[in-house]
Amino acid sequence: MSTDRRGRPFDGLGDSLCRSPDDFGDTLRGIVADQYTCLAELRRDDRAIEGLPVRLVIALVVGVACLSVMLNMISGVQGLAVAELDVRPEPEVTTPGEQDLTLTVVDPDGRPVAGATVVVAGDTARLDGVATARTGDDGVATVTVDPTLGPNREQGTLSIDIKPPAGDRYEDRRGNTRVLVVES
């Protein structure tokens, strides 16, 4: 509780304390002082991000989390999501020389993806050019490769990249399984 310059208590709200013009000035100065003190306390509060109150930040974070859960429950919104493709080569380990590789392109749930283009290139094993093929309805593509190993190398790898089907919501950003080429 504040006091005026005569030492009388006042809360800055009531007219009963403003009996003279001097009392009114004291009341007004008390209100301004109380507001200044409140603003100074807010400036010193370092418990939140960029001066926002902690409760507001918590409410914002919880609200965004709830909104994302609700949007995921709506089936039409998931149409905006992008799924990562992966490839399953067979065989995963091979020897130098001409041979066929069977590559199955799958989505995150393990279902085959039709219409994807598979590109096999030399990594630490050598390959003349690149081998490409398009997956069928069963998600399988077959490529013929002729890997070789460099001098003094006992093993190497072939890299596999996937170009997702046009117009679908797939992508291939992560590394795929590599085919290991070993000297027999």
Q: SSE layout and pairings?
A:
Elements: E1 2-3, E2 9-10, H1 21-44, H2 54-73, E3 83-84, E4 86-90, E5 93-94, E6 99-106, E7 117-122, E8 130-134, E9 140-145, E10 155-163, E11 170-171, E12 179-182
Question: What does this 3D model show about the protein?
Answer:
- There is one protein chain.
- The chain has 184 residues and is of the alpha+beta class.
- It contains 2 helices and 12 strands; from the N terminus they run ββααββββββββββ.
- The protein has helices spanning 21-44, 54-73; strands at residues 2-3, 9-10, 83-84, 86-90, 93-94, 99-106, 117-122, 130-134, 140-145, 155-163, 170-171, 179-182.
- The strands form 4 sheets. A 5-stranded mixed sheet has the order 5-12-10-7-8, with no helix packed on it.
- The protein is elongated, with a radius of gyration of 36 Å.
- It starts with a strand and ends with a strand.
List keywords for this structure.
single chain; 184 residues; alpha+beta; five-stranded mixed β-sheet; three-stranded antiparallel β-sheet; 2 helices; 24% helix; 29% strand
Summarize the structure.
With 184 residues, this protein is of the alpha+beta class. β1 (2-3) and β2 form a beta hairpin.
Q: Assess the beta-strand content as a share of residues.
A: 25-35%
Q: Would you tell me the structural class of the helices and strands?
A: alpha+beta
Query: Uncertain regions: pLDDT < 50 for 5+ in a row?
Result: 14-18
Strand order, largest beta sheet: 5-12-10-7-8
The number of helical elements comes to 2
Taking all Cα atoms into account, the compactness measure Rg is 36 Å
Strand tally, please? 12
List the secondary-structure elements in sequence, H or E: EEHHEEEEEEEEEE
**Major sheet details:** 5 strands, mixed
The shape, in one word, is: elongated
